[in-house]
Design a protein that fits this description.
457 residues; alpha+beta; 8-stranded mixed beta sheet; 4-stranded antiparallel beta sheet; 16 helices; disordered N terminus
Length: 457
């Protein structure tokens, strides 16, 4: 194992989990070995309220979780931590407006949780409610035509709580990028070095902003954390606030980006490769172009106009840089309304929140055969026909559904044809979407068909 001054291997593993590494690829199936070896408790058995984490004054030693040793983010403790991230790391608020909150109607349909579907690779049907326990879901909302038709809170999540969004954070950064591109503040066809000249000597030096936004950079950078030589370890160390005094590497995320190398003989723009460093760079580009950090911009351009009910927050690196690639924690209903705004071409409550042009680029910009071919080269065998645009996952299915996705089961699923939005927070015992997709995506599609059928009657 490379030595980066971390307190322990568990801390390294935990940091990888939080970053959201390249473990979503169905063709890669890189589950965490240490976690997979842990005896698996059921969703009910691992409920943080049952486990009793951090209860008491002080908590019992065997119920106390620490960031410095990684115990806070190993299963089943992570089921507590996802709802309490700012208790373990420095954070920056994403303030909402003081004088405006969105309004949303509810029209709960209790039959939704009985909707049946067949998971991928199975011949046995299960109900939506059963799938929630299978996926260790902490909370889920289904919206249809602007109304909440299903809402449930499990585990340690409460209606007023905030939950780590993991790599769903990437889609917020990508949305900011699409907004600024639609306004001409950044030019996706320009080289990265127009905005960040410090990267001229790095692997990003000849990449365009578009290649960064769509993750088609050809970087010598692996997020396979089963490999002790993978570059992800050095990236994680650069953002770790608990590294040891013997640490000599990059002091923050931006310093690390300068060290990233290009694959010898490869060209940017040829293949999709899910790399969190692309999101960190997009966050840097956005900040350079606007003079504001990502948390400020999410507040100014999305959270306040949306009328979010709760302030969100972002995790920070040792230099106070916003962790754009996976550090956002937010409220479930607020995330649902963000998804509804995206479904409605950037509008909510009769107000244009973000430019329609930006939403259309996200929804349709990756639907061409070339984008799908680049995605296919990434090895995501379960996600055939999909593509990736502006840090959103594009299904290219008959309904034109598109997604924000994060490890452990975080999701925003938007189906324009069904007029449906599903948002979910979870704390699965395995990080990879490879593990939960078979019990998730067919469930979302089944709910869409149910709602469309109901609307016809």
């Amino acid at each position: 194992m490379k030595q980066f001054g971390f307190a322990s291997l568990p801390m390294m593993v935990a940091m990888m989990m939080f970053i959201g590494c390249n473990i979503s690829g169905a063709g890669k199936d890189r589950e965490n070995v240490k976690e997979a070896a842990v005896p698996v408790l059921t969703a009910a058995e691992s409920d943080p309220r049952v486990m009793g984490w951090m209860q008491g004054f002080p908590p019992a030693e065997d119920k106390t979780l620490y960031a410095a040793d990684g115990s806070y983010f190993t299963f089943p403790a992570l089921r507590y931590s996802v709802n309490h991230m700012r208790e373990f790391f420095p954070t920056r608020d994403v303030p909402t407006a003081d004088n405006f909150r969105y309004a949303v109607e509810t029209d709960i349909d209790s039959d939704i949780e009985n909707i049946s579907f067949v998971p991928w690779g199975s011949d046995k049907a299960m109900s939506l409610r059963q799938s929630l326990d299978t996926n260790y879901v902490d909370g889920m909302i289904v919206m249809h035509k602007g109304k909440i038709v299903y809402e449930i809170y499990l585990g340690g999540l409460t209606p007023d709580g905030l939950h780590a969004a993991m790599s769903v954070s990437k889609s917020f950064t990508g949305t900011l990028g699409a907004v600024l591109a639609s306004e001409g503040v950044i030019d996706p066809e320009e080289k990265v070095t127009r905005y960040v000249p410090e990267l001229a000597g790095s692997g990003f030096g000849d990449a365009t902003v578009r290649q960064v936004m769509d993750m088609t950079t050809a970087l010598q950078y692996s997020e396979d954390y089963s490999d002790p030589e993978a570059e992800i370890w050095a990236y994680a160390a650069s953002g770790n606030v608990f590294r040891g005094s013997d640490y000599k590497g990059p002091k923050n995320y931006y310093e690390y980006l300068k060290t990233v190398k290009k694959i010898a003989g490869a060209a940017h723009g040829e293949a999709f490769g899910y790399r969190t460093v692309n999101t960190e760079l997009l966050g840097w580009i956005i900040s350079r172009a606007t003079g504001k950090n990502v948390a400020e911009l999410v507040s100014e351009r999305i959270w306040k106009p949306l009328g979010a009910h709760y302030n969100g927050y972002y995790q920070l690196d040792p230099s106070g840089i916003t962790f754009a690639g996976g550090g956002f924690s937010l409220n479930l209903r607020d995330m649902a309304m963000f998804g509804e705004m995206m479904r409605c071409h950037g509008r909510l409550g009769g107000k244009q929140i973000i430019p329609e042009k930006a939403v259309e680029d996200i929804r349709t910009g990756g639907s061409n055969p070339e984008s799908q071919a680049r995605f296919a080269r990434g090895g995501y065998d379960q996600l055939k026909g999909w593509s990736y645009r502006d840090m959103w996952w594009i299904t290219n299915n008959a309904h034109g559904a598109f997604m924000a996705r994060g490890v452990y089961g975080q999701a925003i699923y938007i189906d324009p044809v069904a007029e449906m939005v599903i948002v979910r927070f979870a704390s699965n015992y395995l990080a990879s979407n490879t593990h939960n997709d078979p019990f998730s995506i067919p469930a979302y599609e089944a709910v869409a068909e149910y709602l469309m059928g109901k609307a016809k009657h």
